[in-house]
Amino acid sequence: MRSVGGTVLALGTVSLVTDISAEMVTAILPLYLVVGLQFSPAAYGVIDGLYTGATVLLRLVGGYVGDRVNRHKTVAGLGYGLSAFAKLGLLAAGASGPLIGLAVTVDRAGKGLRTAPRDALITLATPHDRLGRAFGVHRTMDATGAFLGPIVTLGVLALGNGAFGPVFVTSFCVALLAVLILVMFVPDAGGPRPRPAEVSWRAVAGLGRGRLLPAACLLGLVTIGDGFVYLVLQRRVDLGIGWFPLLAVGTSLVYLLLAAPLGRLADRVGRLWVFVGGNATLAAVYLLLYGPLGGWPLVVTVLALYGTFYAATDGVLMALAGSVFPPELRATGMALVQSGQALSYSVSSVLFGLAWQAWGAGAACLVAAVAALLALPLTVFLLTKESRSLSAREHVSS
């Protein structure tokens, strides 16, 4: 970890603490809505779509403003603070679907505002040939928080006699701690302020001409939400409600174990192939949820593959983006990719919820698996072209 620098480690600590807070809520939200409040799968699909779709606009705003004023840390801090206060909104929403949707939207808007400036800080503080390693270390720390969050939730639920209110309050307090760590220990990128022409909307529009954005959107369109994966798995094996939060723990454990090694592998053998391989494991997850395997073998296999999917794609995609976009538009370009993927993901969640309600969970998973497999060859084509274009530009510049 020493080779990635202090900025990456400090941001990793912020993400670790933030993810404890976020996963405390995420681990129980599907159960809270579908079982506790009796929301239909379609209604949950809409809220799950909002959970990611709400980030689209503010991802772009966060990335653009961070580049424009060259204050990535400040913009990221605003996003972290917004997400923290959204936890209290979930507490105040009660059983109201619209108010829950509003609180979720605010929470995800905060995530959208902070993500691109944070990832830009990582790329600006890391040499090009170590980007995979840097994002691997950061995502490992992030996944450690995701691993601990559901465990903290179980403890709070036990102490609070199963009430959800104390979970939201504790999540809020932990999120505020992350904001404090960011303010005290993360340096801003600094450096000379870019010229306005370099961060104009015309320059931003030019970022979308590459092939990384359509590839990210395509894969987002065939990716369903974590909540759906865990709900299908819970119903397939008739898992007790008390075990449900531990499904996220299993995924996060595999993620944190593999993120750094797969990041180093991506730097050595090529980020494209690690990224595509990760998406192939996602298709395998959907096939397993449809297939005949059951019991604990199904649980263990699905969680292992699902964690591998995240470890091989999340940070590696941002390492790819860090190689493609220029420094003065780094946060904006990364936000553009993240926004496109988030918008596609929100559509996917709504469609999967409708498919589940119309055809059943098994058939919906089969359709998702077929779509994911069909998307892989086109993704390879798009990203191979992008990699060749990048290599040609680097050769000319050298």
TrEMBL record:
Membrane topology of this protein: Multi-pass membrane protein
Per the record's keyword annotation, is Transmembrane included, yes or no? yes
User: Under the GO molecular function aspect, what terms does this record hold?
Assistant: transmembrane transporter activity
> Which Gene3D superfamilies does the entry link to?
MFS general substrate transporter like domains
Q: What is its main location?
A: membrane
By its UniProt entry, which InterPro entries does this protein fall under? MFS, MFS_dom, MFS_trans_sf
Q: Which GO terms describe its cellular component?
A: plasma membrane
Q: Which UniProt keywords apply?
A: Membrane, Transmembrane, Transmembrane helix
Subcellular localization is given as:
Cell membrane
Query: Domain Major facilitator superfamily (MFS) profile: where?
Result: 7-387
Q: Which CDD domains match?
A: MFS_MJ1317_like
Segments traversing the membrane: 46-66, 78-104, 163-186, 212-233, 239-260, 272-290, 296-321, 361-383
- PANTHER family xref list: C-METHYLTRANSFERASE, MAJOR FACILITATOR SUPERFAMILY TRANSPORTER
- The name on file for this protein is MFS family permease
